Amino acid sequence: MENKSPNNAHDSKKRKRVDGAQNPRSQVQSQSPLAVKKQKLLQSRQNLPIWSRQRDIRNRLREHDILVLSGETGSGKSTQLPQFLLAESWCTGKIAVTQPRRVAAISLARRVAEEMGSPLGSSSPASKVGYSVRFDDNTSPGTKIKYLTEGMLLQEMLRDGTLSQYSCVVVDEVHERSVDVDLLLGFLKQLLESGKRRKPLKIVVMSATADVESLSEFFSTPMTKPEVSGDTSNGTVHGDDEEFNGFSDSEQPTPVEKKQVSTCRVEGRQYPVKLHYLDNPTEDVVDAALQRILHLHCKEPMPGDILVFMTGQEIIQGLQKLVEELAGNLPSEYPRLLVLPLFAALPQAAQQRIFERAPPNTRKVILSTNIAETSVTVPGVRYVVDTGKAKIKQYRNRLGLESLLVKPISKSSADQRKGRAGREAAGQCFRLYTQQSYGELEKDTKPEILRCDLSNAVLKMKARGVEDVLSFPFLTPPNREAMEKALLQLLLLGTLNEDGKINDIGRKVARLPLTPTLGRIVLEAARPERDCLLEVIDIIACLSVENIFQPTDTEEAREKALEARSQLHRRQGDHLTLLAAVQAYASETSDRKRWATDHLISHRAMQNVMNVRKQLIAQCKPLSPNPTIRSTTDEATQENILKCFLKGYHSNNIARLCPDKTYKTFAGNQTVAIHPSSVLFGRKVEAVIYNEFVFTTKAYARGVSAIQLKWLEDVWGSS
DNA sequence: TGTGATCAG
């Protein structure tokens, strides 16, 4: 039965006829539900734009190792391309397909399993399709097609430097240009040019935009100085290495010739969207959006929901009030208007409301951040209103901190937003800016690697044996200053040696699912002198998820929160307060959700904390097989916990109280105030450490704990 | 006395 499956047929000549078999009735009667479902799906697969390109794509990959495929949403590339390749003679191993987001990896795997008539993941050893995302590895030994997040493949590359179990890596959604995708592309390019693979490795790079030239140029041009060196002796957290790790041989790399890269374009499927611009620029986009929403609602026929792109939570909630007010005053002959906000911090249940059908005679208006641009598909939308702005992360080398700024979006972002109106029928897009302003927008959004703190990326490169990170093959190289800042940071953390080589600590930190700073703190906690691993992991878990404390926007809510959380507050500061919260939650055995609600703590955030905690404890097992559980009321324990943080923050995140009663940072002697959300707010202690420095109405330190200056020598004096 | 686009390990 296995061999009858068209996608497993190893006889590619017969394949076309089997796929096209139009008389499945006799098979259907005798086949399992999975096979019936597969047969039903075949027709819709055959209608996808990419279907007719199957032969072409397979031929191209027989002749070339690299294929750059551009295709818009709806072309079917993410589901069909991996299936096309399964029967190729070079495809003896697995096919990896990377995705930027977990939900995408999971839903694609589910869909492809159905199409292939295969059980999903670990449910059966016969499963051909699986997925792997953080906290959820759903694969079986027989998995041939594996959907996984970019971060998961990066982790796999640290453990198995040549990706020996794969015959093909498909990198999807490259146009989003996450830091992880940029690293992956560089690592894959190095791997291809290293000549380290025993069997061929095929690479398919897929992008929704037509930036095919830069991608094919990237892969076809050999690196001037192939980077092959590095000390990769074992220093693992897992201790399960079998394969070599990176490019550790001292032998010279094989000389590289210019690679042949094949390129291919597939049409998407999209209904037409009519564009409208403002004649004159507006000063007040909120008002312009309000007018546009009401006008659309009163003039355009039903059905047809409206999706409005805005910058952030606050402005969305403001507009929501205005629209609801005005819509309430409309004459009764108009349909009703249901306003739904959408942003990531919104509780899950509230986010779900956008998928529910509106009551009869009601039009939905969804006011969204750019979450609706890529991460969430809102159904029923025929009208898009675009303010042309978004909050964008920026990194400032000199201050060494990331901040969010409202900035104009790029052309490709604007076009993506517009496309959201044409998913189900023809639609319209109203841009709340002029056509001239559109013309002046950047073509693409600046890749994240040019806008962020690079210490994590650089550490990963070092852990893969890349010694000269300045000549790493980046699709768009970050500037030298940002790279040097990251190297310095890693050196201060003690993850690199003076000569820039990664050390044992660095290799261990690189494998933890944390920033280098937080990873370093965890390692410190495992040292026998500190011996407070479990306690520090609880705190670190909180710092690596969203805020566990429910936001308090009114005076009343603030008082209520203060009251509800009073038993959790620790006078030493926010770190020990977080620890108290996790310990209380974890020891709650009856109803954790209720406990969270009672304490005005986000249950969803706490569930994430528990997942991260479990993962970190498992990963740290080799560091400290039997960690002691400490009494957290013991002063020595408290001191040890905070000293671990001191080790990770070194001079960056410390401030001391000056005679003028203000806190000044160690590093820059800058005045910094304790944030009102801190339990230490308003208190004066000799010195503090803090998790982050933010500049809003003034310079604030958030996540603050009291320390003693005499501790510094103990922490900095030792290695 | 005040904040937060989004995603990933």
From TrEMBL:
Q: Which UniProt keywords apply?
A: ATP-binding, Helicase, Hydrolase, Nucleotide-binding
Domain (Helicase C-terminal) spans: 289-465
Q: Mind telling me which Pfam families this protein's record contains?
A: DEAD (PF00270), HA2_C (PF21010), Helicase_C (PF00271), OB_NTP_bind (PF07717), WHD_HA2 (PF04408)
GO MF terms on file? ATP binding; double-stranded RNA binding; hydrolase activity; RNA helicase activity
Which InterPro entries did the record assign?
Answer: DEAD-box_helicase_OB_fold (IPR011709), DEAD/DEAH_box_helicase_dom (IPR011545), DNA/RNA_helicase_DEAH_CS (IPR002464), HA2_WH (IPR048333), Helicase-assoc_dom (IPR007502), Helicase_ATP-bd (IPR014001), Helicase_C-like (IPR001650), P-loop_NTPase (IPR027417)
Known Gene3D superfamilies for this protein? 1.20.120.1080, P-loop containing nucleotide triphosphate hydrolases (3.40.50.300)
Its GO CC terms are: nucleolus; ribonucleoprotein complex
As its record notes, the protein acts as a catalyst of:
ATP + H2O = ADP + phosphate + H(+)
Supply the enzyme class, top level: hydrolase
Q: Which residues form the Helicase ATP-binding domain?
A: 58-228
Q: Which CDD domains match?
A: DEXHc_RHA-like, SF2_C_RHA
| EC number in record | 3.6.4.13
- Protein name, UniProt field: RNA helicase
Organism, scientific name: Zasmidium cellare ATCC 36951
